[in-house]
Amino acid sequence: MAELFEGQRGRLTAVAHRMLGSRADAEDAVQEAWLRFARQDEASIDNLGGWLTTVVSRICIDTLRTRSAKPESPLDDRLDWIVAEDNDNAPERNAVLADSVGAALQIVLDTLTPDERLAFVLHDTFAVPFAEIGDIIGRSTDATKMLASRARRKVRGAQRPTDLRRQREVVDAFLAAAREGDFDGLMRVLDPDLIWRVHTPRGVIERHGSQELARHAERGQNARFTGRRVLVDGRPGMIAWRTNGVPIAVMRCTVVGGRITEVESITDPSRIAAMDLPARSA
């Protein structure tokens, strides 16, 4: 029985990982599937692969529905940031960007409803027929097709190409203004309705408006912090270091209409220490 299950483990883990966005959560889901399989009469299962996929999918959708009922912070332990050199000549850039695309897709998947996500992932990634998916979520085949179609539109819409070069210019302008202590220059590149989330060891602090971030960046120059632009999950971001070379913050930026509209910052030393960061000097 264990040997039969182990033959399916890789595929089941891949399904659960794509559904849940977390290796640890995926392994938990697969372990729960194993426990259910161990209690099942093996002779009652006609199609082992299909049966196990259904079990894992139902475990995953229960997990997603629980998450939906209890929203998590925008940044949690399910997604690790991929930080890379933002330099066209960096040899690892293309590989890391490919990983970043995967991370970015996971972020988009998190915006789907549990049923949309299941229909999209199982059909488009693992070629599970719509009729079987419908049985899992209790919907008709046609309704399941509509869920997958809606999910597909959301994913494609979120993945439309953006002008990365222009976004880089905005982040560079922010860094230049910060280096010069130019408060007005900082305000020019920050959206007035900016959202700034800071993930500290004590939890998440959310601030609204551009002035506080501008003042913070201005003070950072006076305190002799240094910063440089990097790619974070395929988007322009920044790392700030103390003069002794210790990184103190990793930031991921959202740029819309030539201004920074959202900044997600990690200042928790333990999370920063766990990241594979580029060198202080490019």
Summarize the structure.
The protein is α+β, with helices and mostly antiparallel strands.
Task: Please give a structural write-up.
The protein is of the alpha+beta class. 54% of the residues lie in helices and 18% in strands. It contains eleven helices and seven strands. It has helices spanning 2-20, 23-38, 48-69, 93-109, 114-125, 130-137, 141-158, 164-179, 183-189, 211-222, 269-273, and strands spanning 83-85, 190-200, 203-208, 226-232, 235-241, 247-256, 259-266. Strands 1-4-5-6-7-2-3 form a seven-stranded mixed β-sheet. A hairpin with a 2-residue loop joins strand 6 and strand 7 (259-266). The longest helix is centred in the first third of the chain and has 22 residues, at 48-69. 30% of the residues are buried.
Broad shape? elongated
Derived from helix and strand composition plus strand pairing, the structural class reads: alpha+beta
Number of structural units classed as domains:
2
Count of separate DSSP helical elements: 11
CATH class of the largest domain: Mainly Alpha
Examine the coordinates and then state which fold CATH places here, giving the name of the CATH topology of the largest domain: Butyryl-CoA Dehydrogenase, subunit A, domain 3
Give the CATH architecture of the largest domain. Answer: Up-down Bundle
The CATH homologous superfamily of the largest domain is named: PhyR, sigma-like (SL) domain
